[in-house]
## 1
Amino acid sequence: MTDIIQLLPDHVANQIAAGEVVQRPASVVKELMENAIDANATSIKLIIKDAGKTLIQVIDDGKGMSATDARLSFERHATSKIRSAEDLFDLHTKGFRGEALASIAAIAHVELKTKRDNDELGTQITLEGSEVITQDIVVTPKGTSIAVKHLFFNIPARRNFLKSNNVELRHIIDEFHRVALAHPDIAFAMYHNGSETFNLPNSNYRQRVVNIFGGKTNEKLVPVEEETEILKISGFVGKPEFAKRTKTEQFFFVNNRFIKSPYLNHAINSAFEGLVKEGSHPSYFLNLTVDPKSIDINIHPTKTEIKFDDEHTLYAILRSSVKHSLGQFNIAPVLDFEH
Ligand code: ADP
Ligand code: MG
């Protein structure tokens, strides 16, 4: 009998990996926007056609890439962000897997334009299904533009599995909100089918929340600030009377990364206990800053779940500081009265 095991060709391996990283157009939006942030962009534009099914383009004014790096960026496990296994436990960037561009290029048509500040000319590369079609020297502004067209063109099953444009657009807007909330100091704009959906100037956190969720939000925000040896908390919770039927205004960011944490969510709910009706959900927009060495982000490809070293302590600090903030807000009218 002959041996039967073979290594998969790169383009097949990339397509398999893509299945994990890219579930829908919104996943591409997330990866491209995070790359723009890691490139120190100060302004990021997202351009979408047909809820991302036809086009997803992200344009940034970040540091750009050399011609060689631009070519390498589409290889799997190609990253400028970590060098060794130790770096995995002290992450300061959104990306580190070096998988996003390789995965996206495996299942779409991609056009990259990029230029570093000091280079006279930039690089343009087009790819289709992992294959480089053209590479040229071009005139292009500083920064990077990546256009992703015809997502899942070579995986009809995946393409058919996509939901209606309304649903896919909703997912894209959710990702856009998360990234924009995590980085109020960066300007963001979004365009869908040629019209402007969001235009968010760089600002502070309160202003960013208000710009996204509307002017009425301003009056309902109660600041939460706390600093302990292991955790810094900053942000806002909504006043209890503004609690919503949906969980659409619940955001945790850990070191500027949006995360889902039922456990920490429970800490907030318990701080609101007795203040909101059963079945309504308090709003919160909270940034937690912890030592990168005390968390593990590498448990899921989309990185929305993380593991904390000392979850119980975080829970206790979070709960008590939210309670404290709500308490201050509750006694405020009494103090006013005394004047
Ligand atoms: P990762 O972000 O995990 O490193 P990606 O596949 O997303 O992996 O990107 C690969 C590499 O390409 C990055 O490490 C970075 O060096 C480069 N890159 C990607 N997007 C940009 C961008 N918008 N600006 C500058 N460099 C970029
Ligand atoms: Mg990345």
## 2
Amino acid sequence: MKKFLSFIIFILIIQIGSISFAQPKQLQSRSPSMSKQWSDKANSMVKYQIERRGITNSEILKVMRNTPRHLFVPPALSTMAYDDYPLPIGEEQTISQPYIVALMTDLLKLKGNEKILEIGTGSGYQAAVLSQLVDSVYTIEIVESLANNAKIRLDNLNYKNVIVKHGDGYKGWPSLAPFDAIIVTAAPEQVPQTLIDQLKIGGCIAIPVGDKWQELQLITKTGKNKTKKKTVIPVRFVPMVHPTE
Ligand code: SAH
């Protein structure tokens, strides 16, 4: 009898253990699964490049561990996808360095219910990261082939709350304004006034500004015609270009 009881207790312990280690449904459904090889790389990317540089927001760290960055770069470069630098994505454009993606995301101080505008879709990686932290992401890309590829990639990976548009980011997306926050991933020489106009009061824009020397700025809209500027760090982004007509 004693033996039987300890057997039952043993089975119960195993059952309880497996329940508490099961992944919550919500987490499973918001990010595609990654093999051990890639998730090991993503985990060390987060630990050594992002946490060590001072980003502590656990939601952002979790999302960056779970987003398959190797599927956002050309296949020939996939083994370098989690390394500490930007990579070419074709059309002379680049996917930003992982730390810069995390930093810009962190600057927006997201709560989870925001409608975000991104200028410069590129590979769609920054949009994929944001989409797991907010309500919706609207992203504009000026190079048509990049916009189309990003759209297909984001659809295939099931990031359903990202809408990609081919167009000129200097115009913003007036029919959907105002936005809770805006992220610009190409550098204009000055902060475009149209984007400030399309931001809610209290919202902010993370944006690299400048020509050869660029700085990452956080612009907060404090009133209808009032903004506050914070300079974050020197950065190097591709230029935000005007359409050639
Ligand atoms: N966020 C991207 C990286 C962007 S690189 C990612 O996660 O991969 C910057 C992108 O901005 C490039 O793809 C470039 O074509 C685009 N870009 C440059 N000027 C633009 C403009 N005026 N409007 C929209 N996109 C622009």
